[in-house]
Specification:
It is built from 15 helices and 18 strands. It is α/β, with parallel strands linked by helices and 439 residues long. Strand 7 and strand 8 form a beta hairpin. Helix 12 packs across helix 13.
Length: 439
C-alpha cells in the first residue's frame, strides 16, 4: 500500500474497530486537550487537510465482526499509515462491552500489532466508568450487572455470555493472558509497573510469560494510573476510558502544550436526519421517546426489505414531506431481531438493514441534508462510507462517548456517530441541537 508521509506532528496513533468506537476515543482525547482527526478507513493518495495539525489520529475501521485475518490485515495497514505520520505510541480501541467472539477479533489483532511493533506486552482494559463499564477481578460489569447479564448476551452479532475477560481474551489469543488486579492498580503507577514487569518477566524477574493482561479499573482514577504506568508501552488496547491518562504523559514529556480549544469546530446548519440500526437497550429507549412525541419516523423491517418492499423510497418520501428531522430506524426488540435472523440468516439480516440505511443517507445528502445522527457501530460504518466521508474533526461532547464531528471538506457535514449503548432517552434531540441547529 502507498502511504503519503506528512509532517510528523501527531503523537498518538489509534486504530478503532468501528466508527462509533473511533469517535468515542477521539472524544476522550479532545476533552483532555488533544486536537484530534478521525479518518474513515486508511487514507490513501493525496494528503488529508487538517491531519498535519492533529495531536492524535484515529483510524476508524469496520473490522469488529469481519474474519480475523481481514481484521488483522486492515489493522496493520492502519498501523503503517500512522507510523508514517510520525506517531510515537499506538492504541487499539474496541468496545467497552468487549464485543467479540471466541474467534476474535480483539486477541488476534492485538497480537498482530504487538508483533509489528516489536513489543512483547500490552494491557487490555475496556473500562469506561462514566458509562457504567467497570472491571474487577477481570470481570466486566455494565452498571451493576455482569456483562453476561446486561443484555449483551442478546447481541445479534457478538453475544457476550462470559463476563470474565481473562477467559474471553485467552480463548482468542495464542499468547498467555494474565490479570492486573485492582489491589495493585489502587497502589499507583509504580506498583502497576512492577506488576507488569513480574507478569512479562523483565530483567532478573521470573515472569509468567504473559503477553496481554486484563487490567481492573473501577474509576477514572484507576484509568489515569494505568495510563501513567503504561507511558512507555508501544501499544495499549482497550476502551476509550484507558486514553484518559495519555495526554498527560505527552505533556510531562514536553511534547504536548496545554490546549483550551481542542474541541473547536464550526457549526453546520441545514436539514437533519436520524438513522438508527442498533438493537441495544439505550437505542430502543431513544427510539421510543422519539415515537412517544409523535415525531415523523419510519421503521425498516428486514423481512420486508428481503421481499423487495420499497422502504428506502418510502423513507425518502417521508423526509421530503417534512421540514423537521425524520427518524428512520431498524431498532427493535431482541425477540424480533432473532426472528429476522432465523428467517434470513444473521449476516443477510444485518446487511439488508445497513445497506438500506446507507442508501437513505446517501440520497438524503444529495438532496441537501447536512446533519446526521446515527445510532449503532455497524450502521455508522455503513453510513459514513455511503456519505463518502474521508475524515472528521472532533468537536465537543454531546453525551459520554459521543462527540459532535464535522467533515474535512469544502461543504462540510455534521455527524453524531453513537454506539448503540450510549446516550440517554433524549439523545437524538440533544445531538441535533449540538450539531448546529435546533431539532
Amino acid at each position: 500500500m502507498t502511504v503519503s508521509v506528512q509532517s510528523p506532528r501527531a503523537l498518538l496513533g489509534c486504530i478503532a474497530d468501528d466508527s462509533t468506537g473511533a469517535t468515542d476515543l477521539a472524544n476522550t482525547l479532545v476533552r483532555n486537550g488533544m486536537r484530534t482527526v478521525q479518518t474513515i478507513g486508511v487514507p490513501a493518495g493525496a494528503a488529508l487537510p487538517g491531519v498535519e495539525q492533529a495531536d492524535a489520529l484515529v483510524v476508524a475501521l469496520k473490522s469488529r465482526t469481519i474474519p480475523a485475518a481481514d481484521a488483522i490485515a486492515q489493522s496493520l495497514d492502519a498501523l503503517r499509515w500512522l507510523q508514517a505520520q510520525g506517531c510515537r505510541q499506538f492504541f487499539f480501541k474496541y468496545c467497552s462491552t468487549f464485543d467479540s467472539t471466541d474467534a476474535g477479533n480483539i486477541g488476534p489483532v492485538a497480537e498482530a500489532l504487538l508483533a509489528a511493533l516489536g513489543s512483547d506486552f500490552t494491557i487490555a482494559c475496556p473500562a469506561f466508568p462514566e458509562n457504567g463499564r467497570t472491571i474487577f477481578r477481570g470481570h466486566l460489569f455494565v452498571g451493576d450487572a455482569l456483562l453476561s447479564e446486561s443484555g449483551m448476551e442478546n447481541h445479534p452479532l457478538t453475544p457476550m455470555h462470559d463476563a470474565n475477560l481473562v477467559r474471553v481474551l485467552q480463548r482468542q489469543s495464542k499468547g498467555k493472558v494474565g490479570l492486573l488486579r485492582h489491589d495493585t492498580v489502587a497502589r499507583g503507577s509504580v506498583a502497576v509497573q512492577h506488576a507488569i514487569g513480574a507478569l512479562r518477566g523483565d530483567g532478573a524477574l521470573r515472569g509468567d510469560g504473559v503477553r496481554m493482561a486484563v487490567a481492573d479499573a473501577v474509576s477514572d482514577a484507576d484509568l489515569h494510573t494505568l495510563g501513567e504506568a503504561c507511558a512507555a508501552l508501544p501499544l495499549l488496547t482497550g476502551g476509550s476510558g484507558l486514553a484518559l491518562g495519555l495526554p498527560a504523559n505527552f505533556r510531562r514529556a514536553g511534547l504536548l502544550p496545554e490546549r483550551a480549544d481542542a474541541d473547536n469546530v464550526a457549526p453546520v446548519t441545514g436539514p437533519a436526519l436520524v438513522l438508527a440500526g442498533s438493537a441495544s437497550k439505550a437505542t430502543n429507549a431513544q427510539v421510543a421517546q422519539w415515537l412517544a412525541h409523535r415525531r415523523p419516523a419510519l421503521r425498516l423491517d428486514p423481512l420486508a426489505l428481503a421481499e423487495g418492499a420499497p422502504l428506502v423510497e418510502q423513507a425518502l418520501a417521508l423526509i421530503a414531506a417534512h421540514a423537521e428531522p425524520v427518524l428512520v430506524y431498524a431498532t427493535t426488540s431482541p425477540e424480533q431481531v432473532k426472528a429476522a435472523q432465523a428467517a434470513l440468516g444473521v449476516e443477510r439480516a444485518g446487511h439488508l438493514v445497513e445497506q438500506a440505511l446507507a442508501d437513505i443517507a446517501a440520497a438524503a445528502k444529495a438532496r441537501g441534508t447536512r446533519r446526521f445522527v446515527v445510532a449503532g457501530g455497524e450502521t455508522s460504518g455503513a453510513v459514513v462510507q455511503a456519505l463518502g466521508v474521508q475524515a472528521l474533526r472532533i468537536g465537543a461532547q454531546i453525551a459520554p462517548g459521543v462527540p459532535a464531528t464535522v467533515t474535512l471538506e469544502a461543504q462540510p457535514l455534521a455527524l453524531a456517530l453513537k454506539s448503540g449503548n450510549f446516550g440517554g432517552p433524549d439523545f437524538f434531540d440533544e445531538a441535533l441541537r449540538r450539531l448546529g441547529g435546533e431539532a
